[in-house]
Design goal:
This protein is of the alpha/beta class. It has two domains: 4-185, 2-enoyl-CoA Hydratase, Chain A, domain 1 (Alpha-Beta Complex), CATH 3.90.226.10; 190-237, Lyase 2-enoyl-coa Hydratase, Chain  A, domain 2 (Orthogonal Bundle). It is 51% helix and 11% strand. It has helices at residues 12-26, 50-53, 58-77, 93-100, 127-135, 137-146, 152-157, 173-185, 190-203, 208-222, 226-237; strands spanning 34-36, 43-45, 82-86, 89-91, 103-107, 111-113, 150-151, 163-165. It has a four-stranded parallel beta sheet, with helices on both faces. Strands 2-4-6-7 form a four-stranded mixed beta sheet. The longest helix is centred in the N-terminal third of the chain and has 20 residues, at 58-77. The protein is globular and about 60 Å long. It starts with 11 loop residues before the first helix and ends in a 9-residue tail after the last helix. It holds the Pfam family ECH_1.
Length: 246
């Protein structure tokens, strides 16, 4: 993300560009992991573009917030693992974007929060649903009700991010850690990883018996893959597997 004059805030043009990027990523079979990062030092995403929103009438606001919600859903629905690299401020819609990713890495000095109530708003792009799944209902309510900002280390302690790392001189410590994490995922069987993501995302929404059925369907799709056969052969031959995503 690189909208420096507006701190990567989510305006109409920027949101359209993000939709276009997601469309390309979704259908690119060479993509194994997606990392969301900022080119603007000190900020991941400052949230909605409130200057732009101030020019909208009530109907336009409702339509645009729905589009933001759809954007976060599209991020969550990417078939490959996604990692948010939070090296600076991730506020409001910016944190909701990170919550839509599978994994989050933050610099310990990063600041994040669902601050909408401090602006007379409430989270409208999935924050009220995704934050409780990360930190639990009680903490999610506290953070949303107060609009409090927390740093990366606090976020790690409550389970909001997977890793918190000290910031470096370049200001991209979270991105570097996210790359390391991506490189751990990269060698694994692509279809198995995709099916694992699908089973978790769909299974968490239903009761345990239905979740087990979803897992079974995902597993069944993986059985006939060449990668599964390759994994078995590599184990038998005591060599690293060579997965091809088929």
């Amino acid at each position: 993300m690189n909208r420096p004059h507006a701190r990567n805030s989510l305006g109409k043009v920027f949101v359209n560009e993000l939709f276009s990027a997601l469309e390309q990523l979704r259908f690119d079979e060479k993509v194994r992991v997606v990392v969301f990062k900022s080119e603007v030092k000190g900020v991941f995403c400052a949230g909605a573009d409130l200057k732009e929103r101030a020019q909208m009438d009530d109907a336009e606001v409702g339509h645009f917030v729905k589009r933001l919600r759809n954007l976060m859903d599209e991020i969550a629905a990417l078939p490959v693992p996604t990692i948010a690299a939070i090296d600076g401020y991730a506020l409001g819609g910016g944190l909701e974007m990170a919550l839509a990713c599978d994994l989050r890495v933050a610099a310990s000095s990063a600041k994040m929060g669902l601050i909408e109530t401090t602006r007379g708003l409430l989270p409208g792009a999935g924050g009220t649903q995704r934050l409780p799944r990360c930190v639990g209902v009680g903490l999610a309510k506290e953070l949303i009700f107060t609009g409090r900002q927390i740093d990366g280390q606090e976020a790690f302690s409550m389970g909001l991010v997977n890793h918190a790392v000290p910031q470096n001189e370049e200001g991209d410590a979270a991105y570097q850690r996210a790359l390391t994490l991506a490189k751990e995922i990269l060698p694994q069987a692509p279809i198995a990883v995709k099916m694992g993501k699908l089973a978790i995302n769909r299974g968490i929404e239903v009761d345990i018996a239905s979740g087990m059925a979803i897992e079974g369907m995902c597993y069944a799709q993986n059985i006939p893959t060449r990668d599964r056969q390759e994994g078995m052969a590599a184990f038998k031959e005591k060599r690293p597997p060579r997965f091809i995503g088929k």
